[in-house]
Every structure is written in C-alpha cells, then in structure tokens.
C-alpha cells in the first residue's frame, strides 16, 4: 500500500530503459545521453561500420611522408600521405600488442616504429619489420607459419573530396557522394569548391556533455535566436532573416542556412526582446567586417555531417568542428580553422578577427559550451525523463524557416534506426 | 657591488618591480571582475592574443582571443559583461615573476608564466590553462602599458569554456 502510493508520487513517466518512449522522434529519452551500453553501441553503429567520419584536411598532409593523428569516434587513427601521393588512414594501435604507436601529433616520416617491441610500419600501416622475428642463435622468434602478409595496423576505407578526408572502418561503405546525398553535397561543395585550402590554426576544448548534444545544437536554429545575444544584437542571426533547415534523405545530415535579411521586423524583435540589446554597437567594426565570398545570398551555412563533424561557415570564419567522444559524459571539440590558399592577407586577417566568435572563448560559442554542460547536468540525474522536440511540428521535412527542431527529429529518426532503438 | 653592476642592476631591478606591480594589478582587475579596466592596460593600438602553443609553434594565426587595439578590447569587455551566457564562477590568475629579456628607452620585452584556475558551483577547483605571457611594454608618462600581450598556452583542451580574458 505504502509502496503503491510512493510510485504514484514520482510524478514522471517511468520508461523502460532501452525502449524509446511513445511519440517517436518528438521525444528523446534522457538515458541516451548517459548510458554506458548506448555509448558502446554508438562506437560500433554510429562511428564504426560504414559511416564516413571526418579525420583531417588534405592541407595538413601536403607532402609524401606527412602524417597527423586523428580520431574516428573514440578510436585513435593515423592519417598519412604516402610516397605515391595517396591518403591512408589506419588504426593507431600496434598489430602486436595494441600500443598507440604514433605519439606525435603530426610530422613527416617514412616509417613508424612502435616503441615497445620496435615493430615498424610503412605509410600504409603495413608491418615492415619485426625485431628477432627469426629468434636469436636459433632460439625463440616467431613460428615458421607466421607471415607478414596482411599484417598491419587496421586499415580504414578513405574518401577524399575537394581537400577533405573521411574514413570508415567498413570497406564496403557507399561512395561519399551518395552518403551525403545531392542536397548536402551541394552545401559541402559550396565551401569545398576545389580551391586548395590553407589551415589557419587549431582550437580545442573538452566539453562535459554527451557528444549528441553538440550535434543537436547545430541542428537547432531555434536556440540561436534566443540564446546568442551577441549574434542577435549585432544582426548576424535573426528570425526575420530569410533562412532554412535542410536535410538529406535519411535525416542524418543537416544544414542551417541563413540569408542576409531585410530590415529588422517588429514581431521578431519582440519575441527576442528578452535578450535583444539594441543599445550596443561594436566599438571596432573590423570584428564583423564581413566580405561576401560565395555565390548566392546565404551568409551562414552550418552543416552537420553524420556522425562526427560540423562544417562551419559563419560569415568569413570557416572551420571543421571535429567531435571526439570521451565516454557518455564528455567529448572533445577540435576546431580546425581554414581559409583558401589564394586568400589575400586582408581575407586571412578577417578570418582571424572573426574567429573571436568561435572556439572555447568564442563570443558566440561560449554560450553553447556552457549551456551544453548545463544540459548534461540536468539530464543525467533524470534518465527516465524525455526531451520534447516538437518545434515546427512532428514531421521530418525541410523547413523554409528557423523556428523548428526538425533537424533534431531527422537526426534521431536515423539514430533510432542504426541503434536498433 | 661595482659601479658597473649598480648601473645595470639598478634599472633592471626597478623595471622588474614595476612589471610585477603591473602584472599584479592586471590580474587583480580581471580576478575581481573589473573588466572595464582591462583595456586601460594597453596602448591605443595594443595587441592582445590568447594563442594555443600548437598554433604558435606552427606559425598559424588563429587565436582563441584576438584583439587589435583598445576598441576591440572594449568590444570583448561588452561581450563578457553583457552578451555572454555563462555559469557563475571564480577565476584566479597566478603570474610568476617577470623575466626581463630586453629594455631600452622605449620598450621592455618581458615574459612570465601564468596559471588560470577556475571554481564552479558543485565542483572541485580546476586548472583552465597554463601558459606564458610574451609582453612588449612601453612607458607612457608615468604608466607602463602593454603594446603587446600574447598569452601562449600549453594546455591543449580548454575544459568547457573560457569566459574571460587571461
Ligand atoms: Fe549555438
């Protein structure tokens, strides 16, 4: 009797873990952000398998022998340029005993040597040498049946498009172009139009929240018009600007597109008024001295490419935001800022100034990293509660406006499928 | 002490004390949330940058904070005070004794290590970043002002967010 009334007092729906709540993609159970088993399955089904993960820019490894360390999900990999000019990606995990043998972040070499037992690897990740393989004075060594053939650090499939490198563990992954779909490929090619890229620098932060919250954040234009006072105040993002949310067929990739709007609209201003500060103007306008550089009237395109990268084109600041999950409760956000090899010094300077908006100290992005941690703080203790994702309706279809959470629904419709939830 | 030593050490010691005082006032202003005072530590065209060591070593220009001139510093102050949404916290800066690399009539070149420590609600105090100030300082009348203050930080990953200048 006492137990029954206690049950009734809980006052929230108690969903069975692992069973998605009723309401389909208009609900997201909070346990997806904290459950260890979900995290492990994501490594296999979201980041592993036939999913094309961003790993690096070609501009980071221009010459034969160049390499960088990177990540596919939480798995360390090495990205190399071989002597023939090809791009290779392989596990940073020794075929012998698993040591993450590549310990420099970047460099140039013709050989990687695992420090533990000196097994050596070529630029394709193949084992080229094993000390004492034949033993010493007839004793020890590998058995006669041990062959070097096919030994190596696990190789990944590689796709390169217009200077951007993607990798997949499954070698029968569909062509990258098909994976993106025609619409998303169009937005991808808008920034990566074939011009050689130039890396301008890196910023890194570790955010104490589940990686999915970051992805959702860039699929959620609704928040930008109320949370980001800097964007609103200085006219970089407003609901009265012409805008759209678009997805691929599966819903896994998305793009938020904002176009330079007409005059500020009174109704939008009123809705945003909690946070709109009309009394501010920039003391130094050079911070937002924006130059048009793409055809068409889009000023901002933020593209999420399943499963691990956000392509940021906010005015003249361009960056890959690479997400590396670090357990259910944290992820690394690694920003690679870039421009084009033929940028003028003035354009580079513009990109450096506008980078003030982004990164761990960004005038805009700090709002996000802060609110994402606050999300995790509020979600984890309530695993049986669920998020409401009904802005803009319940459907999953492109929207010609920003007052919508449709791209989050798109994301979860694909997520549920691949995770078997 | 020889006459020679006296003439070298005198100005060097004086300069070091003046720099210690400058660094202490700078850190206290930010620690205490007196953000409006921050731009006044710089010359009108003063440059402030907060740069990961990785970028500095590779010669890459992107910085986590980049302010060219006092007006851009003031815009950062407006953002910190008025537009940023951040969890409440205490930030405290620890600046080591400055090392004077060179000085002449118009400019002092100096360096000092810096540690930034953060305390948030419900959490243990943690290190936000550790790095080094690379400073070029000039005298304007009675005051020492930063012509350049570049903080190069070793830390690779900033824990969550950096909500103020260092
Ligand atoms: Fe945001």
Question: How is the secondary structure organized here?
Answer:
The complex is a heterodimer of chains A (421) and B (166).
Chain A: H1 2-9, E1 27-29, H2 36-47, E2 53-57, E3 66-72, E4 75-81, E5 87-91, E6 106-108, E7 112-113, E8 120-121, E9 127-129, E10 157-161, E11 164-168, H3 176-191, E12 197-207, H4 211-218, H5 221-224, H6 229-233, E13 243-247, E14 254-259, H7 266-271, E15 298-305, E16 309-314, E17 317-325, E18 331-340, H8 345-354, H9 365-379, E19 386-388, H10 406-419
Antiparallel strand pairs in A: 1-19, 2-11, 3-4, 3-6, 4-5, 7-8, 8-9, 10-11, 12-18, 13-14, 14-15, 15-16, 16-17, 17-18
Chain B: H1 3-31, E1 42-52, H2 53-58, E2 65-68, H3 70-83, E3 89-95, E4 99-103, E5 107-120, E6 126-140, E7 143-153, E8 158-159
Parallel strand pairs in B: 1-7
Antiparallel strand pairs in B: 1-2, 3-5, 4-5, 5-6, 6-7
The structure holds fe (ii) ion (FE2).
Residues 217, 223-224, 228, 368 of chain A line the site of fe (ii) ion (FE2).
């Amino acid at each position: 009797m006492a137990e029954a009334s206690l049950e009734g007092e809980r006052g929230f729906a108690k969903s069975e873990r692992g069973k998605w709540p009723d309401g389909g993609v208009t609900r997201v159970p909070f346990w997806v952000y904290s459950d260890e088993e979900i995290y492990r399955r994501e490594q296999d089904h979201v980041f592993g398998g036939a999913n094309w993960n961003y790993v690096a820019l070609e501009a980071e490894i221009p010459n034969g022998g160049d390499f960088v360390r990177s990540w596919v999900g939480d798995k360390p990999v090495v990205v190399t340029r071989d002597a023939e000019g090809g791009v290779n990606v392989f596990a940073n995990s020794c075929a012998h005993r698993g040591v993450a043998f590549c310990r420099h972040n970047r460099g140039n070499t013709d050989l990687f040597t695992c420090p533990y037992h000196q097994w050596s690897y070529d630029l394709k990740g193949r084992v080229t040498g094993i000390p004492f393989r034949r033993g010493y004075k007839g004793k020890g060594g590998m058995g006669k049946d041990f062959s070097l053939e096919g030994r190596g650090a696990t190789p990944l499939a590689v796709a390169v498009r217009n200077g951007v490198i993607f990798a997949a563990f499954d070698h029968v992954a569909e062509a990258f172009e098909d994976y993106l779909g025609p619409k998303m490929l169009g937005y991808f090619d808008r920034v990566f139009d074939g011009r050689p890229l130039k890396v301008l620098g890196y910023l890194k932060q570790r955010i104490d929240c589940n990686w999915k919250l970051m992805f959702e954040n860039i699929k959620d234009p609704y928040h930008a018009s109320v949370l980001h006072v800097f964007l609103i105040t200085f006219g970089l993002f407003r609901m009265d600007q012409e805008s759209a949310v678009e997805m691929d067929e599966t819903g896994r990739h998305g793009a938020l597109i904002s176009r330079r709007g007409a005059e500020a609209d009174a109704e939008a201003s009123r809705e945003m008024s909690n946070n709109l500060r009309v009394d501010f103007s920039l003391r130094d306008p050079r911070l937002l001295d924006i130059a048009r550089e793409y055809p068409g009237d889009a000023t901002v395109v933020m593209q999420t490419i399943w499963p691990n990268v956000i392509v940021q084109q906010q005015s003249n600041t361009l960056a890959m935001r690479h997400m590396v999950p670090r357990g259910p409760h944290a992820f690394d956000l690694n920003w690679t800022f870039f421009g084009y090899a033929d940028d003028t010094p003035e354009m580079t300077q513009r990109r450096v100034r506008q980078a003030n908006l982004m990164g761990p100290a960004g005038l805009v992005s700090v709002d996000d990293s802060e609110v994402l941690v606050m999300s995790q703080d509020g979600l984890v203790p309530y695993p049986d509660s669920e998020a409401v994702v009904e802005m803009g309706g319940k459907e999953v279809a492109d929207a010609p406006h920003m007052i919508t959470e449709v791209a989050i629904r798109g994301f979860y419709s694909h997520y549920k499928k691949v995770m078997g939830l | 002490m020889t006459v020679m030593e006296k003439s070298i050490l005198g100005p060097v010691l004086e300069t070091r004390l003046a720099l210690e005082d400058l660094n202490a006032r700078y850190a206290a202003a930010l620690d205490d949330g007196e953000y409006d005072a921050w731009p006044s530590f710089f010359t009108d065209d003063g440059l402030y940058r907060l740069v990961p060591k990785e970028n500095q070593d590779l010669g890459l220009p992107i910085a986590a904070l980049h302010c060219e001139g006092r007006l851009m510093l003031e815009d950062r102050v407006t953002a910190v005070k008025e537009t940023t949404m951040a969890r409440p916290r205490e930030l405290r800066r620890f600046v080591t004794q400055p090392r004077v690399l060179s000085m002449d009539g118009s400019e002092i070149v100096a360096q000092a290590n810096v540690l930034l420590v953060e305390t948030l609600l419900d959490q243990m105090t943690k290190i936000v970043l550790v790095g080094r100030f690379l400073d070029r300082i000039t005298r304007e009348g009675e005051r020492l002002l930063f012509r350049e203050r570049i903080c190069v930080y070793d830390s690779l990953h900033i824990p969550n967010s950096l909500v103020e200048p260092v």
